[in-house]
């Protein structure tokens, strides 16, 4: 674990230089995915999205890993809207250790509000080309890579949370966290979580139902 921390900390100078190059609208976040529930280990210019050290990941599974454009351990140029309606353009690159296990993520978040205003101005004078939808699908190797990454997240989340004498409400809270982070959007996730928790699929589904009723 200490070696993983050293590897992740070695990316801090890159975070600082990237943020300085692109200015105050550019936020850099480094995630420690060996600690999924408190994965944010470093931020700079965190006023862009409000990310704080000790928070968990948000878009990794739901947006990045599930995208058909996620290849070679990165997804660049995806966008999302913050709670206060600002558009953020992002890039996420996974970080692996010497054994090629995913241990972290290097994320760049850019507030593109000013650029959007400029584009609206330009669109008043220039026609814009029609975007052609990319219909390519992920290759089998890309899908296997994503499956392996999610398997690792499931294992790490459960490993960091399970203890002897774990109560029902604690298991439900664990399921709630994984559901919130998009783990169960991935094919086969229920079976894998059930196996690692030593409970049945039916029990996992009942916990999920209970979690969703409370939303």
From TrEMBL:
Residues 8-120 form the YheO-like domain. It holds the Pfam family PAS_6. It comes from the Bacteria. Signal peptide: none annotated. Residues 151-209 form the Transcriptional regulator DauR-like HTH domain. InterPro entries: DauR-like (IPR039446), DauR-like_HTH (IPR039445), YheO (IPR013559). PANTHER family: TRANSCRIPTIONAL REGULATOR DAUR. This is Transcriptional regulator. It comes from Oceanobacillus piezotolerans. The lineage of its organism: Bacteria, Bacillati, Bacillota, Bacilli, Bacillales.
